[in-house]
Amino acid sequence: MGISAAVDAFVKDLGLRPTLAEYDVITSWAEVVGEQIARVAVAQRMERGILYVGVSSASWRAELTMRRVEILKKLNSRAGTQLVREIRFR
After folding, report:
1. Contacts of 50 (CB under 8 A, 6+ apart)
2. Which of 6, 26, 63, 80 has its CA 20 to 30 A from that of 20?
3. Which pTM was predicted?
4. How far apart are CA 69 and CA 77, in angstroms?
């Protein structure tokens, strides 16, 4: 068994796969939404399929709310599963 397979088995045995997938959503936020949005909106945490995002202004919050479905699709496409059910912009 190679190192990669051993680490994968270890992560699976400990039940860490969902937590790591959520962490990846948060850490890949800037890459998924692009530099312009990443400057004004920061993924903060995931809870029960809900991604909480801090936004710098009400106007950006409105813009991102309108683009919610598009962003959800991109995040879930990267995750390879319907990990993010909802995004809440704050």
Report:
1. 84, 85, 86, 87, 88
2. 63
3. 0.81
4. 12
